[in-house]
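Aim 2 progress update. The chain analyzed this quarter is reproduced below.
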Amino acid sequence: MSLVGKQAPNFELPDQDKNMVKLDSFKGKNVVLLFFPAAFTGVCTKEMCESRDSLSYFNGMNAQVIGVSVDMPFTLAKFKELNQLNFPLLSDFNKEAITAFGCKCDTWVMNLHGVAKRSSFVIDKDGVVRFEQILEVAGDYPDFAGIKKTLEGLK
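Predicted structure tokens:
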């Protein structure tokens, strides 16, 4: 069931520095919410680095980029440092956000359970989901053109 047109589910998760972050604390800004399966994997690293390299664009669209995975905050801190990521990474270790957003992967590689499906959401300044892409194949890449088109429409 799509969340487009609905209020985004709120969550409170620790970031890479162990600070608690609430999604609704970003009201007044657009949010690009990127769920990814696991830090240090190839496609996830590419996705987060493309987000880093596009940050000036996102800032110009009044958009806060947030990455979310089920990795522990310590892992996310190292991942952020090594890839020089310039936006927060949140730990959904308890799988609350991926469940609320409908992007929990039941079975991943090596029969591992409960990681995020690679998913992208654009949430407007009022907290309403305006774009949603939930990929069934972890190796598929997010539709950054669709994300940017949605943000352009929110200007």
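The mean pLDDT is 95. The beta strands are 12-14, 20-22, 30-35, 63-69, 89-91, 104-105, 115-116, 119-123, 129-134. These observations will guide the mutagenesis experiments scheduled for the next reporting period.
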